[in-house]
Design goal:
Elements (H helix, E strand, L loop, with lengths): L17 E2 L9 E3 L4 E4 L7 H9 L4 E4 L3 H6 L8 E4 L5 H11 L6 H18 L1 H13 L4 E4 L6 H12 L4 H9 L1 H4 L12 H7 L4 H15 L2 H7 L5 H11 E3 L1
Parallel strand pairs: 3-6, 4-5, 4-6
Antiparallel strand pairs: 1-3, 2-7
Helix pairs in contact: 3-4, 4-9, 4-10, 6-7, 10-11
Pfam families: Y_phosphatase3 (PF13350)
Keywords: Hydrolase
GO molecular function, one term: protein tyrosine phosphatase activity
């Protein structure tokens, strides 16, 4: 299931646009294909890309990019309802401040910064993820949620959705790591950041998502409690999500 040939849509203007469908959940169910998509930013989509998504019925986009990111690289599609759920890219600013101050940031320090960022998703940005679930519960019309690279903010959102649907955690991690196979790192020829540090910033590691999951376990008592008590996705809402987004295999 994981390597279904249609998981990646292979769009010209977004390398990390992919379907969450097909993953096995509980009780012989699986996530429906062509309902839930995750992606890097959508501002570079070609007209053909837009036509492909329109043919799939994708009519909702949820954008986790920060206010400045969104303003700098906007997009606008006919027939596409856009919803801004901004989470500011704090790790980028921290890196810039350290480098500008003359500190030689190491890959290990960058991993720690990324882990801190993921813990912040859990503690500081829960309202954004709660809003996404509210929209998921309102309609099962095909949607895409994304950030800039489609790997961190989007990756945590995808993990929460799949876990809420009953997809096993090891499969959730496999989906998360697919970014490393698909995402095309932007050309940064003028960057002062060492390449080995960029490789940490623009890729994903199990340690990043694990940091978020550990925070969920330690501070909220587990995924089910976090979904219910923090995101407003209790047993009734999870049952509704499963009815909307799962199908019999």
């Amino acid at each position: 299931m994981l390597h279904h040939p249609d998981r990646s849509l292979k769009l010209s203007g977004a390398s990390n646009f992919r379907d969450l469908g097909g993953y096995a959940a509980t009780d012989g169910m699986a996530v429906k294909w062509r309902r839930l998509f995750r992606s890097d930013h959508l501002a570079s989509l070609t007209r053909q890309d837009e036509q492909s998504l329109a043919a799939l019925g994708v009519v909702r986009a949820f954008d986790f990019r920060g206010v400045g990111e969104r303003a700098a690289v906007p997009y606008n599609w006919s027939g596409m309802a856009q919803h801004s759920l901004p989470i500011e890219p704090t790790v980028v600013q921290r890196m810039k401040d350290l480098i500008d101050a003359g500190h030689e940031v190491t890959p290990a320090e960058t991993v720690e910064l990324m882990q801190h960022t993921y813990r912040a998703f859990v503690h500081d940005n829960a309202d954004r993820f709660a809003s996404l679930f509210e929209h998921l519960l309102q309609s099962d019309a095909p949607l895409v949620f994304h950030c800039t690279a489609g790997k961190d903010r989007t990756g945590f959102a995808a993990a929460l959705i799949l876990l809420a649907l009953g997809v096993p955690r090891d499969v959730v991690m496999q989906d998360y790591l697919l970014t490393n196979d698909l995402y095309r790192m932007p050309a940064l020829s003028t960057s002062k950041t060492p390449q080995e540090v960029l490789n940490v910033l623009w890729r994903v590691q199990e340690a990043f998502l694990d940091a978020a999951m550990q925070a969920v376990e330690k501070d909220y008592g587990g995924v089910e409690a976090y979904l219910a008590d923090v995101l407003g996705v209790g047993s009734r809402e999870r049952a509704q999500l499963k009815e909307m987004y799962l199908t019999q295999t």
